[in-house]
Design a protein that fits this description.
The chain contains 13 helices and 10 strands. By secondary structure, the protein is an alpha/beta fold. Strand 7, helix 7 and strand 8 form a beta-alpha-beta unit. The chain is globular.
Protein backbone atom coordinates (compact mmCIF):
# COMPACT_ATOMS: atom_id res chain seq x y z
CA UNK A 1 0.00 0.00 0.00
CA UNK A 2 1.21 3.48 -0.91
CA UNK A 3 -0.15 6.70 0.59
CA UNK A 4 0.04 9.73 -1.68
CA UNK A 5 -0.66 13.44 -1.57
CA UNK A 6 -1.66 16.05 -4.11
CA UNK A 7 0.56 18.73 -5.62
CA UNK A 8 1.89 20.68 -2.65
CA UNK A 9 4.64 19.58 -0.26
CA UNK A 10 4.48 21.35 3.12
CA UNK A 11 7.32 21.65 5.62
CA UNK A 12 7.00 21.56 9.41
CA UNK A 13 6.17 25.29 9.41
CA UNK A 14 3.29 24.68 6.95
CA UNK A 15 5.16 26.48 4.19
CA UNK A 16 5.10 25.08 0.69
CA UNK A 17 8.38 23.72 -0.59
CA UNK A 18 8.97 23.15 -4.31
CA UNK A 19 6.06 25.39 -5.43
CA UNK A 20 5.08 25.58 -9.09
CA UNK A 21 4.72 29.02 -10.62
CA UNK A 22 2.17 30.00 -13.25
CA UNK A 23 0.86 33.11 -14.94
CA UNK A 24 -2.40 34.43 -16.31
CA UNK A 25 -3.59 34.30 -19.87
CA UNK A 26 -4.17 38.07 -19.75
CA UNK A 27 -0.59 38.80 -18.71
CA UNK A 28 0.79 36.42 -21.32
CA UNK A 29 -1.26 37.87 -24.18
CA UNK A 30 -0.26 41.41 -23.20
CA UNK A 31 3.43 40.69 -23.91
CA UNK A 32 5.44 40.82 -27.11
CA UNK A 33 6.35 37.48 -28.67
CA UNK A 34 9.91 37.24 -27.32
CA UNK A 35 8.73 38.19 -23.84
CA UNK A 36 5.97 35.56 -24.06
CA UNK A 37 8.53 32.88 -24.89
CA UNK A 38 10.84 33.98 -22.08
CA UNK A 39 7.99 33.98 -19.57
CA UNK A 40 6.59 30.52 -20.19
CA UNK A 41 9.98 28.92 -20.81
CA UNK A 42 11.40 30.22 -17.54
CA UNK A 43 8.29 29.17 -15.63
CA UNK A 44 8.31 25.68 -17.15
CA UNK A 45 12.01 25.24 -16.46
CA UNK A 46 11.51 26.37 -12.86
CA UNK A 47 8.57 24.01 -12.35
CA UNK A 48 10.43 21.00 -13.72
CA UNK A 49 13.38 21.81 -11.48
CA UNK A 50 11.03 22.04 -8.49
CA UNK A 51 9.44 18.72 -9.42
CA UNK A 52 12.85 17.06 -9.52
CA UNK A 53 13.62 18.47 -6.07
CA UNK A 54 10.33 17.15 -4.72
CA UNK A 55 10.99 13.70 -6.17
CA UNK A 56 14.45 13.66 -4.61
CA UNK A 57 12.84 14.44 -1.25
CA UNK A 58 10.24 11.69 -1.67
CA UNK A 59 13.06 9.27 -2.48
CA UNK A 60 14.23 9.65 1.12
CA UNK A 61 10.79 8.75 2.52
CA UNK A 62 9.56 5.24 3.35
CA UNK A 63 8.36 3.46 0.21
CA UNK A 64 4.78 3.64 1.45
CA UNK A 65 4.89 7.45 1.16
CA UNK A 66 6.29 7.55 -2.37
CA UNK A 67 3.18 8.56 -4.26
CA UNK A 68 2.53 11.98 -5.77
CA UNK A 69 -0.08 13.81 -7.82
CA UNK A 70 1.74 16.41 -9.91
CA UNK A 71 0.17 19.83 -10.35
CA UNK A 72 -1.39 20.49 -13.74
CA UNK A 73 0.46 23.77 -14.24
CA UNK A 74 3.77 22.03 -14.88
CA UNK A 75 3.84 23.76 -18.28
CA UNK A 76 1.91 26.99 -17.66
CA UNK A 77 -0.75 27.93 -20.25
CA UNK A 78 0.24 25.04 -22.51
CA UNK A 79 -3.31 24.54 -23.81
CA UNK A 80 -3.78 28.23 -24.63
CA UNK A 81 -3.44 28.19 -28.46
CA UNK A 82 -1.16 31.23 -28.55
CA UNK A 83 1.15 29.53 -26.06
CA UNK A 84 1.00 26.04 -27.57
CA UNK A 85 2.65 27.20 -30.78
CA UNK A 86 5.45 28.89 -28.82
CA UNK A 87 6.10 25.83 -26.66
CA UNK A 88 6.95 23.88 -29.82
CA UNK A 89 9.94 26.16 -30.35
CA UNK A 90 11.70 25.45 -27.05
CA UNK A 91 10.08 22.33 -25.58
CA UNK A 92 12.95 20.06 -26.78
CA UNK A 93 15.29 22.11 -24.60
CA UNK A 94 13.28 20.93 -21.60
CA UNK A 95 13.47 17.22 -22.49
CA UNK A 96 16.45 16.55 -20.17
CA UNK A 97 14.52 17.95 -17.22
CA UNK A 98 11.50 15.78 -18.02
CA UNK A 99 13.73 12.74 -18.40
CA UNK A 100 15.41 13.45 -15.07
CA UNK A 101 12.05 13.59 -13.30
CA UNK A 102 10.88 10.34 -14.85
CA UNK A 103 14.15 8.60 -14.06
CA UNK A 104 14.01 9.72 -10.42
CA UNK A 105 10.45 8.45 -10.03
CA UNK A 106 11.18 5.07 -11.58
CA UNK A 107 14.48 4.61 -9.74
CA UNK A 108 12.85 5.21 -6.36
CA UNK A 109 9.46 3.61 -6.96
CA UNK A 110 7.45 6.82 -6.78
CA UNK A 111 3.94 6.41 -8.17
CA UNK A 112 2.90 9.47 -10.19
CA UNK A 113 -0.38 10.88 -11.44
CA UNK A 114 -2.17 13.94 -12.79
CA UNK A 115 -5.74 15.06 -12.12
CA UNK A 116 -7.02 17.46 -14.83
CA UNK A 117 -9.49 20.01 -13.56
CA UNK A 118 -13.26 19.87 -13.31
CA UNK A 119 -13.69 21.51 -16.72
CA UNK A 120 -12.12 18.56 -18.55
CA UNK A 121 -15.41 16.85 -19.35
CA UNK A 122 -15.07 14.11 -21.95
CA UNK A 123 -18.75 13.23 -21.49
CA UNK A 124 -20.07 16.69 -22.28
CA UNK A 125 -22.86 17.10 -24.84
CA UNK A 126 -21.05 20.18 -26.14
CA UNK A 127 -18.53 19.24 -28.88
CA UNK A 128 -16.36 22.27 -28.10
CA UNK A 129 -16.11 21.27 -24.44
CA UNK A 130 -15.21 17.73 -25.46
CA UNK A 131 -12.50 18.98 -27.80
CA UNK A 132 -10.98 21.15 -25.09
CA UNK A 133 -11.14 18.22 -22.65
CA UNK A 134 -9.32 15.99 -25.14
CA UNK A 135 -6.66 18.67 -25.58
CA UNK A 136 -6.28 18.94 -21.82
CA UNK A 137 -5.94 15.18 -21.33
CA UNK A 138 -3.42 15.05 -24.16
CA UNK A 139 -1.41 17.87 -22.56
CA UNK A 140 -1.11 15.84 -19.36
CA UNK A 141 -0.28 12.74 -21.40
CA UNK A 142 2.45 14.68 -23.20
CA UNK A 143 4.07 15.66 -19.91
CA UNK A 144 3.97 12.06 -18.71
CA UNK A 145 5.27 10.76 -22.03
CA UNK A 146 8.21 13.18 -21.92
CA UNK A 147 9.02 11.68 -18.52
CA UNK A 148 9.14 8.25 -20.16
CA UNK A 149 5.65 6.98 -19.38
CA UNK A 150 2.68 5.93 -21.49
CA UNK A 151 4.53 2.92 -22.86
CA UNK A 152 2.37 0.36 -21.08
CA UNK A 153 -0.98 0.19 -19.36
CA UNK A 154 -1.12 2.33 -16.22
CA UNK A 155 2.55 3.09 -15.83
CA UNK A 156 1.19 6.58 -15.06
CA UNK A 157 -2.30 7.72 -13.98
CA UNK A 158 -4.31 10.62 -15.42
CA UNK A 159 -7.56 10.72 -13.50
CA UNK A 160 -10.77 12.53 -14.48
CA UNK A 161 -14.46 12.54 -13.63
CA UNK A 162 -17.09 11.18 -16.02
CA UNK A 163 -19.67 13.86 -15.30
CA UNK A 164 -21.36 15.25 -18.40
CA UNK A 165 -24.81 15.12 -20.01
CA UNK A 166 -23.64 12.70 -22.72
CA UNK A 167 -22.98 10.09 -20.04
CA UNK A 168 -21.03 6.92 -20.64
CA UNK A 169 -21.80 6.91 -24.37
CA UNK A 170 -20.20 10.33 -24.73
CA UNK A 171 -17.26 9.32 -22.58
CA UNK A 172 -16.69 6.21 -24.68
CA UNK A 173 -16.77 8.19 -27.91
CA UNK A 174 -14.29 10.78 -26.63
CA UNK A 175 -12.06 8.08 -25.14
CA UNK A 176 -11.72 6.58 -28.62
CA UNK A 177 -10.31 9.88 -29.89
CA UNK A 178 -7.40 9.88 -27.43
CA UNK A 179 -3.91 8.80 -28.38
CA UNK A 180 -2.82 5.29 -27.31
CA UNK A 181 -0.55 6.86 -24.69
CA UNK A 182 -3.42 8.82 -23.15
CA UNK A 183 -5.69 5.78 -23.20
CA UNK A 184 -2.98 3.82 -21.38
CA UNK A 185 -2.97 6.40 -18.60
CA UNK A 186 -6.58 7.54 -18.22
CA UNK A 187 -8.67 6.57 -15.19
CA UNK A 188 -12.17 7.68 -14.18
CA UNK A 189 -13.61 8.21 -10.70
CA UNK A 190 -17.04 8.47 -9.16
CA UNK A 191 -18.16 11.86 -7.89
CA UNK A 192 -20.56 13.10 -5.24
CA UNK A 193 -23.03 14.88 -7.54
CA UNK A 194 -23.63 13.36 -10.95
CA UNK A 195 -21.81 10.06 -11.50
CA UNK A 196 -22.16 7.35 -8.91
CA UNK A 197 -19.85 4.38 -8.62
CA UNK A 198 -22.36 2.30 -10.61
CA UNK A 199 -22.29 4.94 -13.35
CA UNK A 200 -18.51 4.97 -13.73
CA UNK A 201 -18.27 1.19 -13.56
CA UNK A 202 -19.73 1.24 -17.07
CA UNK A 203 -16.29 2.45 -18.19
CA UNK A 204 -14.35 -0.39 -16.61
CA UNK A 205 -13.80 -2.09 -19.97
CA UNK A 206 -12.15 1.08 -21.29
CA UNK A 207 -10.06 2.27 -18.38
CA UNK A 208 -9.52 1.66 -14.66
CA UNK A 209 -12.02 2.95 -12.13
CA UNK A 210 -10.73 5.01 -9.21
CA UNK A 211 -12.89 4.56 -6.13
CA UNK A 212 -13.46 7.76 -4.16
CA UNK A 213 -14.90 6.55 -0.89
CA UNK A 214 -15.77 10.03 0.40
CA UNK A 215 -17.64 10.92 -2.79
CA UNK A 216 -19.54 7.65 -2.47
CA UNK A 217 -20.51 8.44 1.13
CA UNK A 218 -21.63 11.98 0.30
CA UNK A 219 -23.77 10.81 -2.61
CA UNK A 220 -25.19 7.62 -1.10
CA UNK A 221 -24.86 8.13 2.68
CA UNK A 222 -23.26 4.68 2.72
CA UNK A 223 -19.82 3.43 3.71
CA UNK A 224 -18.71 1.04 1.00
CA UNK A 225 -16.75 -1.96 2.29
CA UNK A 226 -13.95 -4.05 0.80
CA UNK A 227 -16.45 -6.93 0.74
CA UNK A 228 -18.83 -4.99 -1.55
CA UNK A 229 -19.57 -6.90 -4.75
CA UNK A 230 -18.39 -3.94 -6.84
CA UNK A 231 -14.85 -3.98 -5.44
CA UNK A 232 -13.76 -6.97 -7.58
CA UNK A 233 -15.10 -5.14 -10.66
CA UNK A 234 -12.95 -2.13 -9.78
CA UNK A 235 -9.92 -4.34 -9.23
CA UNK A 236 -10.45 -6.13 -12.53
CA UNK A 237 -10.49 -2.81 -14.37
CA UNK A 238 -6.86 -2.27 -13.32
CA UNK A 239 -5.75 -5.47 -15.11
CA UNK A 240 -3.20 -6.52 -12.54
CA UNK A 241 -1.97 -3.03 -11.59
CA UNK A 242 -2.44 -1.95 -7.97
CA UNK A 243 -5.75 -0.03 -7.89
CA UNK A 244 -6.12 3.44 -6.38
CA UNK A 245 -8.75 4.92 -4.11
CA UNK A 246 -9.19 8.50 -2.96
CA UNK A 247 -9.67 9.15 0.73
CA UNK A 248 -10.96 12.36 2.26
CA UNK A 249 -13.35 13.22 5.07
CA UNK A 250 -15.62 16.15 5.81
CA UNK A 251 -14.23 19.19 7.56
CA UNK A 252 -13.50 19.34 11.26
CA UNK A 253 -16.58 20.26 13.27
CA UNK A 254 -19.06 18.86 10.74
CA UNK A 255 -18.69 15.19 11.62
CA UNK A 256 -17.76 13.52 14.93
CA UNK A 257 -14.19 12.54 15.82
CA UNK A 258 -15.19 8.91 16.24
CA UNK A 259 -17.66 6.56 14.64
CA UNK A 260 -19.37 6.51 11.25
CA UNK A 261 -21.28 9.74 10.64
CA UNK A 262 -24.88 9.48 9.45
CA UNK A 263 -25.94 12.33 7.19
CA UNK A 264 -29.54 12.08 8.39
CA UNK A 265 -28.51 12.98 11.95
CA UNK A 266 -25.85 15.58 11.13
CA UNK A 267 -28.19 18.27 9.87
CA UNK A 268 -25.54 19.46 7.41
CA UNK A 269 -26.09 20.13 3.71
CA UNK A 270 -24.35 17.81 1.27
CA UNK A 271 -22.62 20.81 -0.27
CA UNK A 272 -20.83 21.41 3.03
CA UNK A 273 -20.02 17.74 3.54
CA UNK A 274 -18.17 17.69 0.21
CA UNK A 275 -15.39 20.00 1.45
CA UNK A 276 -12.22 18.26 2.64
CA UNK A 277 -10.76 18.41 6.12
CA UNK A 278 -7.26 19.55 7.06
CA UNK A 279 -6.29 16.25 8.68
CA UNK A 280 -7.65 12.74 9.25
CA UNK A 281 -9.10 13.26 12.72
CA UNK A 282 -11.58 10.35 12.83
CA UNK A 283 -9.90 7.04 13.71
CA UNK A 284 -12.98 5.01 12.73
CA UNK A 285 -12.84 6.40 9.21
CA UNK A 286 -9.07 5.86 9.08
CA UNK A 287 -9.58 2.19 9.95
CA UNK A 288 -12.24 2.01 7.23
CA UNK A 289 -10.01 3.52 4.54
CA UNK A 290 -7.01 1.40 5.50
CA UNK A 291 -9.15 -1.75 5.37
CA UNK A 292 -8.92 -1.47 1.56
CA UNK A 293 -5.49 -3.02 1.83
CA UNK A 294 -5.22 -4.04 -1.82
CA UNK A 295 -5.43 -0.38 -2.91
CA UNK A 296 -3.01 2.52 -2.93
CA UNK A 297 -4.56 5.58 -1.28
CA UNK A 298 -4.41 9.14 -2.60
CA UNK A 299 -4.91 11.38 0.41
CA UNK A 300 -7.13 14.31 -0.54
CA UNK A 301 -6.83 16.59 2.46
CA UNK A 302 -5.76 20.21 2.80
CA UNK A 303 -2.59 19.55 4.76
CA UNK A 304 -1.21 17.42 1.94
CA UNK A 305 1.91 15.40 2.85
CA UNK A 306 1.56 16.30 6.53
CA UNK A 307 -1.80 14.52 6.56
CA UNK A 308 -0.55 11.53 4.57
CA UNK A 309 2.34 11.25 7.06
CA UNK A 310 -0.23 11.35 9.87
CA UNK A 311 -2.19 8.53 8.25
CA UNK A 312 1.04 6.59 7.74
CA UNK A 313 1.94 6.95 11.42
CA UNK A 314 -1.57 5.79 12.36
CA UNK A 315 -1.23 2.78 10.05
CA UNK A 316 2.09 1.89 11.69
CA UNK A 317 0.61 2.23 15.17
CA UNK A 318 -2.35 0.01 14.29
CA UNK A 319 -0.05 -2.46 12.49
CA UNK A 320 -1.82 -2.03 9.15
CA UNK A 321 1.58 -1.32 7.59
CA UNK A 322 4.70 -3.36 8.33
CA UNK A 323 7.53 -0.98 9.31
CA UNK A 324 10.30 -3.51 8.80
CA UNK A 325 13.01 -2.65 6.23
CA UNK A 326 12.08 -5.69 4.15
CA UNK A 327 8.50 -4.42 3.86
CA UNK A 328 9.55 -0.84 3.16
Amino acid sequence: MKLGFACKYLDADFKQRFPFKSTTRTRFLGLQREAQIALIENLARMNLTQLAGLLETLATQPETLRMLRIGSDLLPLYTVPEATSLYREFLPDLYPLFERCGALARQHGIRLSFHPGQYSVLASDNPNVVQRAIEDVEYHALCATLMGYGKQFQDFKINIHMNGKAGFAGFRQAFGQLTPEARNMLTVENDEISCSLDDVLQARGLCPVVLDIHHHWVKENAFIRPSDSRIPLIQESWRGVQPVLHYSISQEGLIPEHGYPDQNSLGVAKTKLRAHSDYYFNSTLNDWALSFNTFDIMCEVKMKNLASQQLYDYALATKVIDPSPAAQ
